[in-house]
Amino acid sequence: MAYFGHFISSYPFSFRALVVIFLCFLAWTSGSAVTHDRVPPRFATVPAVMRNPNPRVPLASIVTFTSDEPAAVALQVNDGRVFYADRELRTEHAVAVLGLRAAERNQVRIFLIDGAGNRSAPSASLEILTDPLPADFPPIEARVHETSRMEPGVTFFNVIRTDRGLSALLAVDGDGKVVWYYRGNTMITDARRLRNGNLLFLDGPDAVEMDMFGNVIWTWHPARLDPALNSPPAVPVDVDTFHHEIAELPWRNLLTLSTEVRRYEAYPSSETDPGAPWSPANVVGDVIVEFERNGRVVNQWRLLDILSPYRIGYDSLLGYWDLTYRNIFAGTRDWAHANAVSYDASDDSFIVSLRHQDAVVKIARQTSRIVWILGTHNGWSASQSSFLLQPVGRLDWPFHQHAPEMTSRGTLLLFDNGNNRAEPFEPKMALEEDYSRAVEYRIDPRTKTVSQTWSYGGPGDEIFFSRIIGDADQLPLTKNILITDGARDLDANGNNSESDSGTTQWARIVEVTYTQPAQKVFELVIGNPSRLATVGWLVYRSERLPSLYPPERVLTPPLRGKVPE
User: Fold this and answer.
1) Residue pair 401/416 in contact by the 8 Å Cβ criterion
2) Rounded to an integer, what distance in angstroms lies between the CA atom of residue 74 and that of residue 97?
3) Domains 48-132 and 140-545 equal at CATH topology level
4) Which of 150, 363, 484, 556 has the fewest CB atoms within 10 Å distance of its CB?
5) Phi, psi (deg, nearest 5) at residue 32
6) How far is CA 357 from CA 92, 337, 354, 397, in A?
7) Which stretches of 29-137 are assigned E, i.e. beta strand?
8) Are the CB atoms for 333 and 378 separated by under 8 Å?
9) 320-334 in b/e burial notation, b at 16+ Cβ within 10 A?
């Protein structure tokens, strides 16, 4: 080595520097070869399949096995996409298998990925045989499914049998096949997935958080009117009701709608006769509620204090809440019928849909002040008329609308049910001419103006009419629009009906392109629209989820009560 140093020193500095760099490179590559891991992880035990121990979610299984080194786990179900089922590096694995089709021999392959990124060869294909859907489930048919043009993922929605005999949550794949379901207790309405991967939904009077295996994590109960049900495990919340909406705010508190009753000694008594004498009334007002998971009410925004209680729309005098407030002998009036509330982080506000006011209202969270009102200009008080949005260009107002939400374009998208298409004391549109649509508006809060930018449904387009419920969502990747046409009522002649008996009741979920005219790329029919049926079906809302697996966290399945496959 001394000789080599003497030898190299006789050469110019530039050459010596090159030699040193070369020797360092040899040393680095030699060390790399020793320390860099290029060996993929291997299965130390053969994967074993176990059924979900909770019978309410039968299309879920658990696979257990060990690996020879810490590894994450990816799955492929029925030749679909490969996706992570567990991103945490570990050697003992209990992995959730979701996305199994009913009544099929499902094929599942497992991949291991170690910390260096090495991926194993897939396991031998595991066959998981699933049972058929229950006999009392609705018929479900995908009449259109152009998967190459659809938003990828699964369509998640609720179903309600109109005789209240069944309520469930379901997910279908791009071909319209059921790949997950949960059979509920009472009537499931609003449902969504939380950031932690669990589901949050309204189940009868209560709000529930549940994991994808059907295990209840939290239950909250509105305790003011029904304290008898206020017992563990339900967490009491000091409000009258939960209805129509339950969501998680960015700071993890929960947002919902509740109600209150106020007595007015003089109140409008007719929707058709402006000269009818006013009379005493028990008016139900909606309340926006924020509460913590421990049940503590953080804040309430009472709409009877924010808007004029004396402005009525068609159906404001109905007794929708009579059963809830059955102790009130004279009955109630359903003044506004709030059916949706969402939080807009761009200006710290709430957007609330008021069905019986035919209006969508934005309210500042900190001050409770009105920001704007989207709706017809009839009947508003002088003090609130200044908040009405002024139309720019051709525009049709929404009537009895549902589910407004802000899009990534900064627009407002909603489902316009279209009931009556008039306000008291104008003549109603004939029932056979009523139509619904998904519609998008662009709102300028500075100039208090609104323009209509897109719509699907109605004259010159596909004609459909859902007299209650409905939803419209912008999808993030394709920008397609997912529409829940959730309550179709047709009589024996195929005409619109408002009757709950002697009609065909069914629902659709439709995905269309964000073009004008829009093109239909997915259509799912729930129920049987072809004949009069003794049982009807409703769908409150729907969502397209990228996967049944949560986007941010490891989904750990329950291991208690394991049942071998």
Assistant:
1) yes
2) 10
3) no
4) 556
5) -60, -40
6) 57, 8, 5, 12
7) 48-51, 60-77, 82-98, 105-114, 126-129
8) no
9) bbbebbeeeeeebbb
- Pair 541, 403: CB distance under 8 Å: yes
- H-type alpha helices, 298-357: 303-306
In whole angstroms, what is the distance from residue 29 CA to residue 106 CA?
Answer: 46
Structure tokens at 217: 């994590």
Q: Domain 48-132, CATH 3.40.1000.10 — does that match?
A: no
Instruction: Enter the tokens of residue 189.
Output: 């309405």
Identify whether the C-beta of residue 144 lies closer than 8 Å to the C-beta of residue 523.
yes
Which candidate, 497, 473, 311, places its Cα nearest to that of 419? 497
At 17, give phi and psi (nearest 5°). Answer: -65, -40
The DSSP output letter for 235 is E
Per the document, the length of the chain is: 565
The residue extents of the domains of the chain are 2-35, 48-132, 140-545
CA distances from 48 to 41, 110, 124, 272, 563 (A): 18, 11, 11, 68, 11
pTM for this entry: 0.91
Kindly give the confidence (pLDDT) of every residue in the chain, 565 residues in length, as a single tens digit, with 9 standing for 90 and above. Answer: 444 344 344 445 454 554 444 545 444 444 444 447 899 999 999 999 999 999 999 999 999 999 999 999 999 999 888 888 898 999 999 999 999 999 999 999 999 999 999 999 999 999 999 999 999 999 999 999 999 999 999 999 999 998 878 999 999 999 999 999 999 988 999 999 999 999 999 999 999 999 999 999 999 999 999 886 655 689 999 999 999 999 999 999 999 999 999 999 999 999 999 999 999 999 999 999 999 999 999 999 999 999 999 999 999 999 999 999 999 989 999 999 999 999 999 999 999 999 999 999 999 999 999 999 999 999 999 999 999 999 999 999 999 999 999 999 999 999 999 999 999 999 999 999 999 999 999 999 999 999 999 999 999 999 999 999 999 999 999 999 999 999 999 887 888 988 766 577 999 999 999 999 999 999 999 998 876 667 899 999 999 999 998 864 444 555 433 322 3
Query: Which listed CATH number (3.30.9, 2.130.10, 3.30.200, 3.90.550) goes with 140-545?
Result: 2.130.10
Amino acid, single-letter form, for residue 553: R
- Are the beta carbons of 413 and 404 closer than 8 angstroms? yes
- Measured CA angle at 287 (ends 366, 342), to 5 deg: 65
Q: How far is CA 339 from CA 207, 268, 286, 548, in A?
A: 16, 22, 9, 27
